[in-house]
Hints:
The protein is an alpha/beta fold. 20% of the residues lie in helices and 15% in strands.
Amino acid sequence: xxxxxxxxxxxxxxxxKRIGRGQGSGRGGTSTRGHKGAKSRSGYKTKLGFxxxxxxxxxxxxxxxxxxxxxxxxxAINLDKIQELVTDLSIDTIDFDVLRENGLVSKKDLVKVLxxxxxxxxVNVSAHSFSASAIAAIEKVGGSANKx
Length: 148
């Protein structure tokens, strides 16, 4: 054992800074908060996006365009995904519950079936909306497209 190899026992030295425990601690008085102002007081919190008085990024960036409040957003499901479900699960009816169980849509989604891909199996599909090419492809193989 040599002097330069000595070190304190594990857990005996605390690394956390203890503030506000008197002048003798070296971190008393203002408790590392500085003098006066809102930042020195308890409960202080900056507003989200506040940049110290500089114009915040959200207000500096120009705004343009328009999004209608009446817009209806659909979750798109293509025919190739429906064919994949039919072959994997060996079912002949695809409805909202089947899509939800397989993680393709969530509870509040509206579903629109689109015509990408090839449909080879006869299948009955129920959804909120269909594209014209999807309806044509479903009916071509003898299936039916039902709107919910």
